[in-house]
Amino acid sequence: MHYIKKGYSQILAQKILHTTPSWGYITDENQKLLDIDTNAIEGYGDGITFFDNAKEIELLKNALLKCHKEYYWEKCILHSLANIDFYIFLQILLYRN
Known about the structure:
Elements: E1 9-15, E2 22-27, E3 33-40, E4 44-50, H1 54-66, H2 73-80, E5 86-91
Parallel strand pairs: 1-5
Antiparallel strand pairs: 1-4, 2-3
Helix pairs in contact: 1-2
């Protein structure tokens, strides 16, 4: 797949096609994830996340283990943004609900 960045954590994101709030990704010009709009109704969001980097897998694993029992696991992802460089690859239609 030509849009895979070897050695980096990545999210294959799809266009938000509905008005139900989703995670919308805010990126820089190099498609590095800067922030997440947890109530986005347009743009690109959701998608499939994968890791190609053992260090970042360990960081995420530790964040999930420390996640407070009252939080959804997504909260741990949001907190991991400071320690993991995610890159977003935009796909028109990656999957269908």
